[in-house]
Write a structure and sequence with these properties.
alpha+beta, 8-stranded mixed beta sheet, 6-stranded antiparallel beta sheet, 19 helices, 25% helix
């Protein structure tokens, strides 16, 4: 995926028109959704850029992706894969230079890029010293997604000079003696004689105490896109910090009927079909279409598929997308029945194939597992809905915090599709209900739920919202923590047993008062995602072995006894007995950033083995 400078005008590239400049660098297509999406900063050699808005992209119609359920959920007409890097298939993605402030390691001058007298729009060199200049390490951002250069002048002068004196003779320099790795060694000095180190710049109220306010800048959308009047307090961030950009991703599995080869064809040609739907000449028009004849679809089948699509569009969305627990949302739970019951018959070109294991009649299910299904074929579409800064999106995120991906309304979002395989498991419902009612699981679940509610309350309070009862609520339950931790344990086990890297496997949870299921599937589209090794783990005989091994593996942690005995661990203290030595995974594999984990709910505690849902696997190998 090529990254290109939009040029001086910043105008949108014309599809099929001249290519704008030589590519500055490149990233993988998947990273345009998860790591370097719109509004994210990306370092390229000696420079730094921010990925431009969707209105500067030139997606190719050949890269159109359809996933009707997700389109309906996100209120868009289609998805596009990030444009490729070589004409005529694509012209890459536009970027804009940011931050604007640079420094020279020889003359130590600290000033905007344009004032260094560079001869090229892309060259990052000091015209006097003729050496490369370095982009500012520090930026500032606010919770409403705005991004700006760090206010060096205000930081050095610390209210000792009026703000309007900035235009005077104040030349800044950056010095770093390198004696320590702390910010105390980074000193900003001014020609007026004042100087200050960067120590303390990352304090929550550091900029507020200087009277620095958010200017509502959105450099990824270009000049004139500012949102004045932002009341959020800006914070200092490292340019490459993870808090500078949090993706708001939504994903969906293609499930019947939307995974059917016929419905996929209807999705692609829906505009034409919708125009004649219900008209007297509907059948004649459908019968005359080349793609209908080529695929030997019957007119009745096409009409039925069109009606299904129309019903989907007419349905009300039950709840808005959130960034809480997607595992509990109705949108996610629509996938549960197709995974539980499977899909037959399968036609060539279908995106979903889910069947019972070959040995399901001959070999019993493993201890306390309710069902195992082999998902031999699946398709997932992952879209970038928006992004946030400073704080990751959470269950109570105000959607106003979601940053805009373009200046104006566009009827599409960037997305990627992943084709792979997986295993779907459920827990024995009777055993699960009895276990949930016992004291140990209830207490440990309540502990994590209380910590989560506290985190939510603090965030609401910090944003100036109400903190009265009902203003925030945690939906964490022992059932969820159990399923989540089991998924992690199995991913770690299968990565060892089947030779998959853990980062190539991904979890997808389904939790409500009527279901408890988990899907472990391949998360990448490379060769590691199509080896067939994951599906093999779902056979009853094999699952008995790997489940037993996984439970016994997490029964011991190199960090015990502190790991097992901890009362709070992990990000925001949202874990109990969990660490990277036992059940934590690469971030790409986990739905919740390695939070809401407790292996004691799998194996029990030293004082109460019954707390563990699978405790018998430790005692007698059942």
């Amino acid at each position: 995926m090529a990254l290109r400078n939009p040029g001086r005008s910043g105008r949108k590239a014309v599809p099929g028109g001249p290519v704008s400049k030589t590519p500055l660098g490149g990233v993988r297509s998947a990273q345009m959704i998860t790591t370097y999406g719109v509004g994210a900063m990306v370092a390229v050699e000696d420079s730094s850029y921010v990925v431009s808005g969707l209105d500067t992209w030139s997606p190719n119609e050949k890269d159109t992706l359809y996933e009707p359920r997700l389109q309906k959920w996100l209120h868009v007409g289609k998805f596009y894969g990030p444009p490729a890097n070589d004409p005529p298939s694509g012209d890459g993605v536009r970027v804009r230079r940011f931050p604007e402030w640079y420094s020279c390691s020889k003359c130590h001058e600290l000033k905007p890029f344009k004032r260094f007298g560079t001869s090229s729009a892309t060259a990052a060199k000091c015209a006097v010293c003729e050496i490369s200049i370095v982009p500012s390490r520090f930026v500032m951002a606010c919770e409403n997604g705005h991004l700006d250069d760090f206010p060096y002048w205000a930081w050095v002068h610390k209210k000792n000079r009026p703000a309007d004196d900035y235009a005077g003779n104040h030349e800044l320099e950056l010095h770093s003696d390198g004696r320590t790795a702390s910010l105390r060694s980074v000193v900003i000095s001014c020609s007026c004689g004042l100087e200050s180190s960067m120590e303390g710049a990352f304090g929550r109220r550091a900029l507020e105490l200087l009277g620095v306010q958010c200017r509502g800048r959105r450099p990824w959308l270009g000049a004139g896109s500012e949102e004045p009047g932002c009341d959020a307090q800006p914070r200092t961030l490292q340019r490459g910090a993870s808090a500078a950009w949090f993706a708001v991703n939504r994903s969906s599995l293609s499930i019947p009927p939307w995974s059917d080869v016929l419905q996929k064809a209807v999705d692609k040609h829906y505009a034409t079909l919708a125009a004649v739907a219900g008209q007297p000449n509907e059948s004649a028009v459908i019968e005359s279409l080349d793609w209908v004849r080529a695929n030997q679809f019957t007119v009745d089948d096409v009409v039925k598929a069109v009606r299904q699509h129309q019903r989907l569009l007419a349905e009300e969305v039950e709840d808005e997308p959130t960034r809480g627990l997607e595992a509990t949302e109705s949108f996610r739970l629509q996938e549960y029945d197709p995974l539980y019951y499977g899909q037959k018959p399968i036609r060539q070109g279908d995106d979903f194939e889910c069947v019972r294991p070959d040995d399901h009649e001959d070999v019993a299910l493993p201890y306390r597992i309710g069902r195992s299904m082999l998902v031999k074929r699946l398709r997932e579409v992952r879209a970038l809905e928006s992004f946030t800064r400073v704080e990751a999106p959470d269950q109570l995120s105000d959607r106003k915090r979601y940053a805009a991906l373009s200046r104006g309304r566009v009827d599409w979002l960037p997305a990627i599709e992943v084709s792979g395989e997986g295993v779907f498991l459920t827990l024995d419902p009777d055993a699960l209900s009895a276990w949930e009612a016992s004291a140990g699981p209830a207490a440990r679940g309540a502990s994590i739920r209380a910590s989560h509610a506290g985190v939510l309350a603090e965030r609401v309070k910090r944003r100036g919202g109400a903190t009265t009862a009902g203003a925030f609520k945690s939906v964490i339950s022992p059932r969820y923590v159990l399923l989540h931790t089991l998924a992690h344990a199995l991913i770690n086990e299968w990565s060892l047993d089947a030779g998959y890297p853990a980062a190539s496997l991904r979890e997808r949870l389904y939790v409500s008062d009527w279901c408890a299921g988990l899907l472990i599937y391949t998360a990448t589209s490379d060769s590691a995602g199509s080896l067939g090794g994951v599906v093999a783990q779902g056979n009853h005989a094999r699952l008995q072995e790997t489940l037993y091994s996984a439970i016994n593996r997490v029964a011991w942690c190199s960090q015990d006894p502190p790991c097992m005995e901890t009362e709070a661990s992990g990000v925001d203290s949202l874990n109990l007995a969990a660490c990277y030595a036992c059940v934590m995974l690469p971030e790409s594999s986990c739905e919740t950033n390695n939070t809401f984990l407790d292996r004691a709910l799998l194996i029990g505690t030293p004082d109460d083995g019954q707390t563990g849902f699978f405790h018998r696997l430790l005692s007698d190998g059942a």
